[in-house]
Structures are given as structure tokens and as C-alpha cells.
Automatic annotation (TrEMBL):
Gene Ontology molecular functions: acetyltransferase activity
InterPro entries linked to this entry: TBL_C
GO biological process terms held by the UniProt record: plant-type secondary cell wall biogenesis; xylan biosynthetic process; xyloglucan metabolic process
Keyword Membrane among UniProt keywords: yes
Protein name: Protein trichome birefringence-like protein 14 isoform X1
Keyword Transcription regulation: no
The Trichome birefringence-like C-terminal domain, residue ranges: 27-237
Species per Swiss-Prot/TrEMBL record: Cinnamomum micranthum f. kanehirae
Source taxon at top rank: Eukaryota
Length: 243
């Protein structure tokens, strides 16, 4: 969003987050998302943070320490309310699917409105796969132009496949077999960004910052514009082909 807006207020960019209910709540560090409109092209870009693409519901709204039902078979409430306003939707998930995150946030897996009793489904990997298929099926039916981005690589997964002069990239299939399988036969199109991102590990801040740590590092902050620009170009190309 910083790249799209130039990172500052101007007459060419309007902050319209309030039209979508995306304003910073009292005591919150940030809103759940950001929305900017560009009047000259009548274009609106919205970014919404949904950790794992499912509907979260507090089990006891009067208890600040309540557990939350994570409905694996339901999209986030914001998406259910606002989907009809979107011409193009891009989905992504992956990094927040871990047991530590669920326990820390007091998230409890639900399917069909009930806690999951199936131990196999309750395993993190299986729950993530189930949710991805549920989300893809929902947007195959309800979204006008749905796209799904596969898992973009963490910095600690990278740096081992650097290309040398004369090397070629010959891989055609997606590294994310779950998402690739989920979109097969649907209207949802796959944005394959994983492999090309692995070739540019220097574009990720966590390994090269002053406070960089060894081992597991931040997964979100891709900082050099060239990489995320390329992601956008792939999306734009698919939109042009669709038109």
C-alpha cells in the first residue's frame, strides 16, 4: 500500500477505510486493513489482514480472556459483508498456521459450528489444507475474479538455489501443491510467485537488518520493490488475459 499511495496523503489518493469499517479501534495499534481510492482512474485498493482466511468468533463476548472459535469452513466476517464490492480478489495464507500462534491467541478449531473432534483433521497441516479447499470453493462460487497466491518463501528457506550465469528456470508446476490442487477445475487462478521469489533472497529485510537473528526470521517484509512489483505484474498480466 505504501508503494501504491506513495506513502503520503495527496489529492490523488483518498483514504476511504471508513467506508468499509476499517478504522483503528480504541486501544488498537492499527486498523484491520487499509483502503485507498485513486479518483483519476476510479480504482480502489483494499488490504485486509486475515491471519488464516477463516471466520473468528469470540465464544464469550463479555470475557476479555475468552477463547475464539476458528470456523475453518467459513470465510472471515469482513469478507462475507464486503465481497460484493470487489471486482478482483487476491487471497494468501500460510505463515500463521502453527500451533504456537493458535495457542497464544486462544483459537479453537470449529467445523459445522462445532469443535473439531476428528484428531486427524485437528492436525495443523490437515486443518490448513481443509481451510484452503473450503475458501477456494467459496470464492469459486461467490467471487467475480478470484486469485490465490501460494505460500511465498520465508527467508530461512532461501539462499540455497541462487542462479549462476547460464542457468535456466525449468520448473512449471507450483511449489504449493495444496493450493494448486485446490484451484484445479475452479475459476480461481493461481499466482505462482514462490519460485521466482526464492531467487531474490537479498530482497528480504530480516537477514540483512541490524537486528537480524539466526534461525527463524520474519516472513512478511519483502522490501526491494522489484520483487513485489513482479508479483503485481503477474497479476496485471492475468487480468489483461481475462479481459
Amino acid at each position: 500500500m505504501c508503494m501504491a499511495t506513495g506513502g503520503k496523503d495527496s489529492l490523488e489518493v483518498e483514504d476511504v477505510g471508513s467506508e468499509y469499517g476499517l478504522v483503528k479501534a480504541v486501544g488498537a495499534k492499527r486498523p484491520d486493513g487499509w483502503v485507498y481510492r485513486f479518483p483519476t482512474t476510479n480504482t480502489t485498493i483494499l488490504y485486509y489482514w486475515s491471519a488464516s482466511l477463516y471466520y473468528l468468533e469470540p465464544l464469550n463476548i463479555t470475557d476479555p480472556a475468552t477463547d475464539y472459535a476458528m470456523h475453518l469452513d467459513c470465510p472471515p466476517a469482513f469478507l462475507q459483508r464486503s465481497l460484493h464490492r470487489f471486482n478482483v480478489l487476491v487471497l494468501n495464507t500460510g505463515h500463521d498456521w502453527n500451533r504456537g500462534k493458535l495457542n497464544a491467541n486462544r483459537w479453537v478449531m470449529y467445523v459445522g459450528g462445532e469443535p473439531i473432534r476428528d484428531r486427524k483433521l485437528a492436525q495443523i497441516g490437515n486443518a490448513k489444507n481443509f481451510t484452503i479447499y473450503s475458501v477456494i470453493n467459496f470464492h469459486n462460487t461467490h467471487s467475480s475474479r478470484p486469485f490465490s497466491g501460494p505460500y511465498h518463501p520465508d527467508i530461512f528457506q532461501m539462499g540455497i538455489g541462487t542462479l549462476e550465469e547460464g542457468d535456466k528456470v525449468s520448473q512449471d508446476e507450483s511449489d504449493d501443491s495444496v493450493v494448486a490442487g485446490a484451484v484445479k477445475g475452479t475459476r480461481v487462478r493461481l499466482l505462482q510467485i514462490t519460485t521466482l521469489s526464492q531467487l531474490r533472497e537479498e530482497g528480504h529485510i530480516s537477514r540483512y537488518s541490524l537486528k537480524a537473528s539466526h534461525g527463524v526470521q520474519d516472513c512478511l517484509h519483502w522490501c526491494l520493490p522489484g520483487i513485489s512489483d513482479t508479483w503485481n505484474e503477474i497479476l496485471y498480466a492475468q487480468l489483461l488475459v481475462a479481459d
